[in-house]
Amino acid sequence: MHILLIASAFNSLTQRVFGELGDRGHTVAVELALGDESLREAVRRHTPDLVIAPMLKSAIPRDVWSTHTCLIVHPGPVGDRGPSSLDWAVLEGAETWGVTVLRAEAEMDAGEVWASVPCPMPPVAKSDLYRNEVGDAALEAVLLAVHRFASGTYTPRAQRAEEARIRPYCDQSVRRIDWETTPTTAVLRRLRAADSQPGVLDELLGDEWYLHGGYPEDVLRGRPGQLLATRAGAICRATVDGAVWIPQLRPRRRPGGRATFKLPATLALGDRLPALPDIPAPAWMPEHRETWTDVRYHEEGAVGFLRFSFPGGAMSTDQCQRLLAAYHFACSRPTSVVVLGGPRDFFSNGIHLNVIEAAADPAEESWANINALDDLVEAVLTTTDRLVVTALGGNAGAGGAMLALAADQVWCRHGVVLNPHYRLMGLYGSEYWTYTLPRRVGQAMAERLTQRALPVTAAAAHRLGLVDRVLRKAPGEFAAEVARLAAQLASMPRTQRYIAEKKAVREREEDVKPLGVYREEELSRMRRDFFDPAAPYHALRRAFVRKEPPQDTPPHLRAASARSAGGRHWIGPARGMEQPLAW
């Protein structure tokens, strides 16, 4: 079928739906919802068999939904209605939830039901749920609805009046935290329900801030509302019965009405921050500790696990340097396998554009950031005394995708979306991508991936050779499955031979073209991108960080529909989803 996706933004779910439908042989077009007339024009131009809205913040015009089947993906169970469905579910501590695909009609979320899929709700941030449990349920529901529509025999069911639960927009009056009376569990729910948007509006150090992210602290205590400590850019704040870590802040307003954006909390506060103890977390922290750290190491037998999780997947200069120090520590341990990656959600999206935008000299900070990330990738590439596995529990893009490819094996969860390109930010790219990407997919495909700048599903990445294993596991099961497979890899009699072969291959390739040459060539291009004031990178970065609305659907998405960019015919022959552990 020819399917038109309309969305308020080409977000993670829209990318996943786009790729998965393309993988299944559909021709998929994408148009951003930028007003009623733009939607009408898009439908006229594409003449789709079916219209799907994976993420839509505005209503579809009556003349469109009355003449075309338009399916809305609603992040709530049947009967749930309103613009803040997932926010309310997290606020109320729901343990199970669901996603419903329904037909658009005049009353919002009241249309005929084409599919509904339940999902669990672990106690994590809303944005994490949206990309994982809710994302899995949404994709399953979309595929089911598309199958039912294509059959031509399915009759969707009307919603019953008694099923309706209409809830209002979740505004700041509901999210507000009274630090003198609100218990820690409720504080965490409010912070998690507002992450990553809109944040919880609060007063702090004489100004108003949106708080982003919330994690419990099991040791530090103080007067309710008091700032207690800092750690890796986050602040710890006392509650009435405990304390929470808040990694990011966003100012409510700026002089001149400029758009504000999230930053590490200590960087956002700047000179306002009082003298507080900085309490670094040891890399090797007991698993039972209930505290926040963005880098953590532990071992299970011959396998070392270096877990990291940075908000939004962005990695600043400081974060790259701390992760590199932890990686060096991991490589000093008597293990034969090191696994990199968090248990769930983002792996990495490369350099930290928000921190760069806030810097006194964004070009200099860009340069420092890319070199710090290059140092980390180089350390992985030159590790020859053990096997390195990257475990992608969540999405990866740009330099983060290339960091993953630096490992000997890449394993990812089936819901992961990869964006192995830099072009949309006006960058040539670094992180040794000119070495790692072609050696996995070939030069021609490397050029196609980086130039077309389209998302790649886990299944497509596996067929291409970008990843070695795709694990069909729920988000909460991924880490345990990775641990099981890593232990199996470490125990294989052939592992030591693989390590010896790996060292020999690296030495031969170094003789042909040293890694330093790849880095120098890439950085010479990046230097021009960073330090030329007229380079597109600066305007593109600013628009991305400050969330400036696009004026039209980007050309690379317009072009994608004609090529069916996610489809089988362009990514090569399929391979089995589960390969035996082998070098």
TrEMBL record:
InterPro entries in UniProt: ClpP/crotonase-like_dom_sf, Enoyl-CoA_hydra/iso, Formyl_trans_C, Formyl_transf_N, Formyl_transf_N_sf, Formyl_transferase-like_C_sf, HoxX-like, NiFe-hyd_mat_HypX/HoxX
This chain belongs to the protein called: Enoyl-CoA hydratase-related protein
What species is this protein from? Answer: Streptomyces silvisoli
Q: Which residues form the Formyl transferase N-terminal domain?
A: 34-141
Biased composition, Low complexity: where in the chain? Answer: 558-568
What sequence ranges are listed for the domain Formyl transferase C-terminal? 173-252
* Matches recorded under Pfam families: ECH_1, Formyl_trans_C, Formyl_trans_N
Write out the ranges of the annotated region (Disordered). 546-583
